[in-house]
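Worked Example 4.2. Consider the chain below.
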Amino acid sequence: MASQSAQWTHTARVLRRAGFGATGAEIDATPDPVGYLRAALAGDPEADPGARATPMPQFTTPTPPGKNATVQQRKQHGAEIGQQLDALTVWWIRRMAAVRVPVREKLTLLWHNHFATSASKVRSAAELAGQNRTLRTMSAGDFSQLAYAMLTDPAMLRWLDGNASTAKAPNENLSREFMELFALGHGNGYTETDVREGARALTGWVVKDGGAVFEPERHDTGTKTLLGVTGPLGTKEYCDIVLGRPESAKYVCGRMWQQLASNDPASPAALDRLTAAYGPGRDLGALTTAILTDPEFTGARDTVVHAPVEWLIGAVRAFRVPLSEDTDARHVAGVLRTLGQVPFYPPDVGGWPSGQAWMSTAAAQIRLSAITSLLKKADLSAISSAGTSDRIDVVGHLLGVGAWSDRSAKVLGTAVNSPPRLAAIAVNTPEYLTS
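Applying the procedure from the previous section yields the following structure tokens:
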């Protein structure tokens, strides 16, 4: 097959990493990927035409059954909660497929994986929708504001038991996970004493009517010593002290590198460049741009194995699989469940696995079966209208793949007479599964 230029391939990689796949038409229309990134990061994600076409549902939390409720009433209450959570998942799948410029939506997914919070415990579509909105709004802003928002987020407070934490019985979960997973990294200069003192500082927050409320009588007003700082510390002070540690910036930048650029850690030199871009303002937009323009990123290829959401939403977008019918969107959700990555259901506070974990033989069979089914409603006219000798190039262009390996081209060559089979094979090649 014909190979695209080095510049086209570079742009394709930036767009694929900054979104959910990228079609050849999108790559052709982006002569300046850095300008594209900066505009996308500076823009209002709610102004995107695809976002306007898929507004977030409004959820009213079902009234809990009383102490004297029947078994049937309790079952009905559980069913209502389940229906709302399903509707929330289906909505986000639709939005990821619909947005015209997917950069902010991709970042929302990455921050959801970073501040991993699961509906398996939270059981409130309204609270999870609120957290999702916060992640999207703050995904290109000041990390300290995002971090504080998560410390006082209703879904997070439920997930890590912050709403049950009182001066008399401070719960350590939120303090521990914030330091270990969200802001500092395991072993990066904090002790068990810091975790306990941090837990005291975080007391006082409860979830009421879907919102986080600070109740002073539940807060420990005593003196605490956290990471060497002593005083009557509260949540804001806790956040500032933890993020003020020199280890924090490199940890956050390193985590984002491994979500956006590579399954492997950044080199010390690259990490220094990213930390400089992040800067004292903890600028996530600048960090995102720095990652996707860093020479260690631009000089490499195929460093990330696509997780199921990225893989499947990319295919849906490229082949214009309609998700207007609930059954179609739920089908996508069902495939993601089988593959092990359903939005709003990370397996634990550490988020989803990455890298080769998604490349098992079993997963390959599921992907091939799932995409074959979805392609029944896809728009494959670009492939079917091309001559058989051009179809391998056409499907590559549709998927933003600049060149096929000899091995992939040989396998694709067996399916040129069947556009659905050709498309199904193409999205299961190494060239599409990695970027």
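The longest helix spans residues 71-98. Residues 93 and 332 are 8 Å apart (CA to CA). Compare this with Example 4.1 before moving on.
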